[in-house]
């Protein structure tokens, strides 16, 4: 009676500069988050059913939503926006929006890269503000520290060490980030942006 | 050329058990977040324009999106879901959803209250998962630690000390939380939930 | 069989610009941390004794050491370095050290004040590095985020809202920080610094 | 005019179950923290000298002490307590203390291992409380979240992915933790503990 399932359709392969071995190692971590999200969800429901909903243990297990849920969700967004060989469409919704705000798509890319190089581990996320239509790059520390309530995530890049260590060892962050940008699925970014701009909440894809 | 404005229409008054003096003191903090969100947005744009987008100072100022933006956004959600005298509608979208998941609306309220009493300061947020329709109470530490990417915030309660200290002093968290639940605007919760269930992204209200 | 006791001898009174009512309200929070530190310590020992030391609940309760222990410890350091009317001694160990590093004691004070005004709630801590003798002001977010392992805390200022709201309301941070500096017990700072410089670990006082 | 230097004498080699290649990759990260700690220290001093000590940029760069300094310091503690082939001495200060508190050294080891397996990345640290003599295992998230002010770190284990990925890939945390315990330098743990018990602050070693 699980709530969440592994989203096999999102698994990338044949990327440029990110090996399938790296993706496979990484994918196993994602599967772990799905399992842990389901386990946490069930444990909390069981504790409530057993009258333990007011205990400190329940409260502190509940704090783990951030880590386990974001650990699952962000990986889905991330794998879902990676694909080799998708050309950028300058008239796509994402490209148009960031070009207007940052001056050019290249300037947004530069900012996204430096965001991904922020000291510490975490994620770079281009977030859409539904109230203003603005898109900014946010660095999320760990999985859960720095998200904005109600903003829509558009472009997502994993910046945990596991994302590059198989291919590059500990020092490979820069080369990895270049490769991620090389493999961004611009069609997906446009699709996500268009949905957000039309006021549609979208399931994770 | 500010991006964000103070949302005067959201300011509550005449609540039961939360004084207007308390709300006024609290509102001033919210105004401060709007100003700081605008200032941060402008400062980052200026730094990029001045070729400082790759500096450590820029990177570390960018980390403050979480605090300043959530500080603004969460207060808008919070003030926006407080109103005296709104009766709960058991067939409303929010009530139906949480009753199904928690067993009863009362059980959800109990869980929301204990969530708000989590040790430390922050927020209790009932979050909607667009992929499953599930609603869970999450404790957010500070303003930015614990949000789930892409989830929709439905019911929001401020649990910083400034929210109750004017009325109660440092020890008044429990009394304050009771008062918040007393003043929840169930119509707004239903409206937010219905929008989320229909796949509509909604501006903050 | 408690491990920790309330340190009554540390309670300040008659401070300049910080009312006894404010201190009393604040002291009650400190007492709560002592109780919670004892409760957490006992709960973990009991869980280990009951074979629950490997559970997720144990692991997540253990994460709370940071909040509860620092909540206790930092308040002891803070109350312990507040006293009305203690004159600064320019040849004291603390003053000499920070004057050398910052240019003057006044420059250190200025830096300590701006540290205390860092956006967000937490603590300003002047930390001594035992390996170099350097003293720097660190902003600690919440109670537990930002400490340096093995460094010795010298001057400590609480920057949670409860520290000033009784006297000033939410907007009183600046006036409160001025008052704290006005009431720093320079003798205690010198004593702590001298102990650290002599390589003595000191109990909290 | 650097404040910190790389501590070459702490670099381990010939460990059991942790390859020199793994240590070398890891050591490079440590060197990066030393460089970044020096750079941050200098940048803050320069900003103060240039009258920028009151800016938001200065304040936010100062927040990075936690990450850069702990990133350096914890690696020194960690490398400094790893050595192949050091037998445990049951009458050593560390072993005696934890045996008394946990029931046996084996029980402490078990607790240290589960601490190291806490979900998320960070460190397991056995911390000594100078006020009570108690030793508990604390999980530190990232480098800086969870330390206790004024406590003395005794046994330290890195639980970032870079610590095991060269040897094991992403899934190797458990095998790595076993190997760390296998290579603990019990003489160093005893030495650190004895110093702490005698009230001596000790330089990092």
Characterise the protein shown here:
Four copies of one chain form a homotetramer. In chain A, strands 2-1-3 form a three-stranded antiparallel sheet, with helices on both faces. Chain A is built from eight helices and three strands. The first copy, chain A, has about 200 residues and is mainly α. In chain A, a hairpin with a 6-residue loop joins strand 1 (about 120-130) and strand 2. The mean pLDDT of chain A is about 95. The first copy, chain A, has two domains: about 20-80, Helix Hairpins; about 95-195, minor pseudopilin epsh fold (3-Layer(bab) Sandwich), CATH 3.55.40. Chains in contact: A-B, A-C, A-D, B-C, B-D, C-D.
Q: Count the beta strands of chain A.
A: 3
Under the CATH scheme, which architecture of the largest domain in chain A would be assigned?
Answer: 3-Layer(bab) Sandwich
CATH H level, superfamily name of the largest domain in chain A: Iron/manganese superoxide dismutase, C-terminal domain
In percent terms, what proportion of residues of chain A is strand?
Answer: 5-15%
Low-confidence regions of chain A: none
Please state the structural category of chain A. Answer: mainly alpha
Number of domains of chain A: 2
Largest interface: C-D, 59 and 59 residues
Helix percent band of chain A: 40-55%
**H/E series of chain A, N to C?**
HHHHHEEEHHH
Mean pLDDT of chain A: 96
What's the CATH C level of the largest domain in chain A? Answer: Alpha Beta
Number of helices of chain A: 8
